[in-house]
Amino acid sequence: MKKRIGIIGAGPAGLTAAYLLAKNGNEVVVFEADPRYVGGISRTEKYKGFLFDIGGHRFFSKSTEVNAFWQELLGPDLLECKRSSSIYYNRTFFSYPLVLSEVIRKLGVITSLRCFVSYIKAKLFPVKNPVSFEDWVVNNFGRLLFEIFFKSYTEKVWGIPTSKISADWAAQRIKGLSIRTIIRNAVKKDNDKIIKTLIDSFHYPRFGPGMMWEVCAQRSIAMGARVCMNTTVRSLHYHEANSSWSVSFADDTTQNGFHHIISSAPIYDLIPGIYPRVQPTALEAAKSLHYRDFITVVLILKNATTFTENWIYIHEPSVKVGRIQNFKTWSKQMVPDQTMDCYGLEYFCFEGDGMWNMEDDKLIALATKELLSLKLVKKEQVEDGYVVRQAKAYPVYDHAYKEKIHVIREELKKYENLHLVGRNGMHKYNNQDHSIMTAMYAVKNILAGEIKYDPWKVNQDAEYIEEEQQQDGGRLSPASL
After folding, report:
1. Burial 18-31 (b: 16+ CB within 10 A, else e)
2. CA angle 17, 18, 20 (to 5 degrees)
3. What is the CA radius of gyration of the chain?
4. Each residue's pLDDT tens digit, 422-456
5. What is the rounded (10 degree) CA torsion for 216, 219, 224, 229?
6. How far apart are CA 300 and CA 322, in angstroms?
7. Residues 179 and 212 in one domain
8. Please, which pLDDT band fits residue 420 given cuts at 50, 70 and 90?
């Protein structure tokens, strides 16, 4: 039976679901708050012909389903890129992932020996049952390497001490990374077993990640889906008599008769808008979730060839910038004039704080000053600037987040036709392929008419996904959907 499905958010998860559901003949309506761009945090913004990302977006997955989906959408416009990134520490570039021989050479013999002793101590006397990011990294690298290469940057990103960040974040984002895996990877690479943070190549759309989602939206529309831009969902109303949903919007209009709702909206925003009201414990859990927000200051430069990496992590406490992207190294088409360069300086903040509220011209001046202080460019090379703010860029993994999500999930079990997907939709700090997989699982459940796949079991490891699919008797692929 043809179903009517409402999708909140036109990011990777929402548009993946829209495409696959429309492909199967369903009535699909996507609601996107942004007036101009699809893709969510994976969009590509434009300024005077320059293209730039909101953060960096590598297209890499061990999932054959996700790779097939990307190829189906972009084909030859999905370029293969050599991964190149560095850590900038003590006015020196260190390759990232770390190369031990380089670390020893650049840190010096004495500091390197201290790092080795610190590592051995951590192996002999590890923190039992690590609960924080700090515990996890110290166990795997030793305290001194943690303080040099992890602490400063991580605290810039999250705005809280590393001792207050859940070990889940490290286990999810840098799972398997250790001195041992770095050495093993340096000796012999195996792309089927390599962890994501160690990959040395990836795909990237010719005109930035937003190209993928613009094409996905266009093809979804061609198959009958509607993508409503500048449309902010205010509330969801569940009708128990026929298990349908109504969606109300900020302009006081309402659309009725949805058999399913797929939401990639932040849980913080979604749960308070569900009627009848959820239980007070679930409402309080949603309202107490935390997010980290994000500003990209784009600087347009003339012949700025100081670094040729895709991005560099700034482990320098004297500046506020956390990471710098070099967009031309992702794809030359990101820059309209090849004598020009386009850098994205990333600042992590909380919505409403001093950084977030700073005027654009002052942010551009700050970014220019910090780029000069790092000696990455000369003053005369900076020609223009542009600012983009991204609210709720990162769901925060504090020590209490897991219990809050558990309470919310238990409450939402009574709605089998409400499907949470994506990074903010599930409060999971994931990559694009992770978000896409959660959407694929939701679509599979809708098409089957029952819950056969659990999107919450999607993690960063594609081997886990493959194992789940084999146990369920088959893979989930765009072609099969």
Report:
1. bbbbbbeebbbbbb
2. 65
3. 23
4. 999 999 988 899 999 999 999 999 999 998 999 99
5. 50
6. 18
7. no
8. very high
Which position has the token pair 């297209």?
59
Q: Tell whether 248 is covered by a domain.
A: yes
pLDDT class of 100 with cuts at 50, 70, 90: confident
Does 283 lie in the same domain as 362?
no
Q: Is residue 427 part of a domain?
A: yes
Asked if residue 163 belongs to a domain, the reply is yes
What's the pTM?
A: 0.89
Assigned domain for 346 exists: yes
Specify whether 413 is located in the same domain as 439. Answer: yes
Domain that holds residue 243: 4-44+207-289+399-471
CA distances from 249 to 231, 233, 246 (A): 7, 4, 10
- The verdict on 284 and 406 lying in the same domain is yes
- 233: closest CA among 438, 439, 29, 13? 29
